[in-house]
Design brief:
Elements: H1 2-48, E1 62-67, H2 73-82, H3 90-99, E2 109-114, H4 119-126, H5 150-154, H6 157-166
Antiparallel strand pairs: 1-2
Length: 168
């Protein structure tokens, strides 16, 4: 009879421990889901809520950025982050570029960006769709003419600039 009471007590304790463990696993799962949800929301907010680094236009500073020929999108984001132009880091910048209309259109060159610009405004400049206020391309070898620079070499430098400015 004593053995039966001992087995009954052991089984009751084991059942209680299993129930407690099951509750702890459920609580851990819920906390993990909430934590991952918070991280995911924060990342999505950083990607889609494009806020400039500077709080006002008067506090914005011009920064010169030089993008080399074989720089990856992540590398560009790292450079922009190091220069204080973006606050969220290169991974967020990479995702913003992938989701934008400028994916695959970023071009090498020298650019003047401002800390009050949003990422979309910077991408517009880095893809050379907005060249207002940017340095001239005196010795840019990337070329704007679909890879055939043989005709440009025969035209004097001042004439090349005039045709680029005029658009024809």
């Amino acid at each position: 009879m004593a053995k039966k009471n001992k087995d009954t007590g052991y089984r009751a304790a084991l059942t209680g421990a299993r129930g407690t463990l099951r509750i702890l696993i459920y609580i851990f799962g819920i906390v993990l889901i909430l934590y991952l949800g918070k991280i995911t929301y924060s990342f999505g907010y950083d990607v889609f809520a494009q806020k400039p680094v500077a709080s006002s236009e008067s506090k914005g500073q011009d920064v010169t950025v030089i993008i080399k020929e074989d720089t990856s999108t992540y590398g560009i984001g790292k450079q922009l982050s190091e220069k204080g132009l973006i606050a969220n880091g290169p991974v967020v910048f990479w995702v913003q570029v992938r989701l934008s209309d400028y994916y695959g259109k970023l071009e090498p060159g020298s650019y003047i960006l401002n800390t009050y610009q949003t990422v979309d405004e910077m991408l517009e400049i880095l893809s050379k769709q907005n060249t207002e206020g940017q340095p001239s391309e005196d010795d840019d070898t990337s070329g704007e003419s679909d890879g055939d620079d043989s005709d440009d070499a025969a035209i004097p430098e001042h004439a090349q600039e005039g045709t680029q400015e005029g658009g024809e």
